[in-house]
């Protein structure tokens, strides 16, 4: 970390795994100067690691890193690296996250941080011990319409929240020829769609409504075999013709009944959450519907620049109206000049990078963190236990999250104690 003569701070960036997500993190760092020219933080692309020679070479020749290595440990050992993006496959997240914390590197890591709550807790403990700043790839929470929805709920304009319906339906594995990547192998991925998509949905719900207290779940595996894809080749969108069939070891579909904690903004509310990676029709339909005693709202990622709001109780027209993302909603004004000109997926990662780096330099703490990742994974792990035992499961409480209601309650308790 270097403070420049003009008062800005330069942070050396390391990248671990130069796949699609690693490229996306890199673009986010690069685009910060365009969306936030007044940020006061300048990321410098220093060192990338990937065991695939072609990807390591791409990191330097295309993405613009100063150097590249095959071993991620060389990134963590580099004294010029201040922050690290961890974009490796799920089964490496805990190992690399713990190593990054022990190396004193602040890190931005994709979810799920661990293959279940136990691994995630181990990373969280290492982070707490090292005192490093973290941020999690929960990008959907950064959509301006979602930020606006969170404010509406917190202000009470929807009244008392009664119930929520959330879904994350994708078709990336709807074709039975879809490759058996690491995502379908329990040792490598842990759970299937629970960790991959449901973790995102749980964070979205907890960020807007507050922490989940209890779950009851059911899961199913729609395709029990898939053609194998060699590690390090292709993506989880790849189709394989006449490949060797291997067993799918985790779930394709999951549904949860949830109850919210008493300290949540949605205290007393209940809901249903569904996730599927084999849905035919939805491409990336990730959304929430929130119902209150004075109104309701729904948002879907496939139309991320729109929020549908109902009229208030007693109004002549209580039906839905479409509200377009605009200035005053989240960080929309940083990317587009006015309503109707849409933001995109990459922009959400730029917002995520901003929140991460500002937390690193100690200016703001609006970023998601390891406690949010642990909280989401506790819900996922409880859902796995529930599906196996066919009964309701309590979700252990996690402090220090950014969940709606719980964070403010925790701050109030700390102030009272002080």
Automatic annotation (TrEMBL):
Compositional bias per record (Low complexity), positions renumbered to this chain: 399-418
GO molecular function, one term: oxidoreductase activity
Coiled-coil intervals, chain numbering: none
Transmembrane domains' residue ranges: none
Residues covered by the Gfo/Idh/MocA-like oxidoreductase N-terminal domain: 12-138
Keyword line: NAD, Oxidoreductase
Name used for this protein in its record: Gfo/Idh/MocA family oxidoreductase
Source species: Leucobacter tardus
